[in-house]
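go over this record:
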Amino acid sequence: MKRFFKPIEKDGSAKKPALSPAKKETENEEENKKREPLKFLTWNANSLLLRVKNNWPDFSNFVTTFDPDVIAIQEVRMPAAGSKGAPKNPGELKDDTGPSREEKRTLLRALSSPPFGDFQIWWSLVESKYAGTALLVKKYLQPKKVSFSLDKSASKHEPDGRVIFAEFETFRLLNTYSPNNGWKEEENAFQRRRKWDKRILEFVMQCSEKPLIWCGDLNVSHEEIDVSHPDFFSAAKLNGYIPPNKEDCGQPGFTLAERKRFGALLKEGRLLDAYRFLNKEKDMDYGFSWSGNPIGNYRDKRMRIDYFVVSEELKDRIAACEMRGRGIELEGFYGSDHYPVSFELSPQATPDSKQGSLSIIQWQIQCTGKVNRK
């Protein structure tokens, strides 16, 4: 019969007791609460359901590779919950008919599969398959508060589901699908856009407590450098119509009136266009986010109308902002007429921490291959 003896442990050699799974999970949760999103993606999907049906594997691979913390989507084009004639719930997908239930299942199945299962989703939708926005945030990086209108009311949604506003610990994030300017002096065209621009400016001026990251399809190209063919877009007209005010003439999104208002918004709101901050020169391959139909007059005509606009306080933390598609043949568009735009912040550093400063430099080198010394 063998005898077994417990070996005598040397002083200080005893192993520390392992943390229980519950305690580990609690510590991880506490650690995650201290974190903030650093990698962002915005994309006008031009119908999220169509992208799921036709382009999802490629887009999923892209998201897996980039691994964003936040995904802002515009033109979801899914109807809000609520039967015909009844009040709608803009925060939920419609499922009161056979076709709508099937569409909801198709969409949610895609959004629950990798890598999207790691995100929590908020919707702002309308009655029809028009406009609408969505915001996806990693589950361990949850915002403190989410609202859906420019007056920051938690229960109210903006008409056409154009706004999702999320407040995090150290900054605020605004996802918008800005209305198209249209071609005429009408209520749903020039007048609608003027009112929107005024409300956005008021909103920005009231959001000075924390830095702002504003992203989405802003439907404006600020400078000539932001379009592929400035003369073409300046002279564009619909059915020969010329607006009475010369500043309203041209392609919606590139009229002088819109561009002036956007410039004033950046200046008065102390905001920076993150992409243009890092890229001063025109890039005919990667410098635009929307492309016209490959067939017809708009072939090879492109505009940069999707943005990350950030408060000046974040200037030194801008690590990267990239257009994620290119060319006439819509490479990287994943079926939409827009391609995704990515944005990265360097980690927030303690002012007196040299180690923190070093991590920012390392982050910039990792993201862009160079140190941002602007």
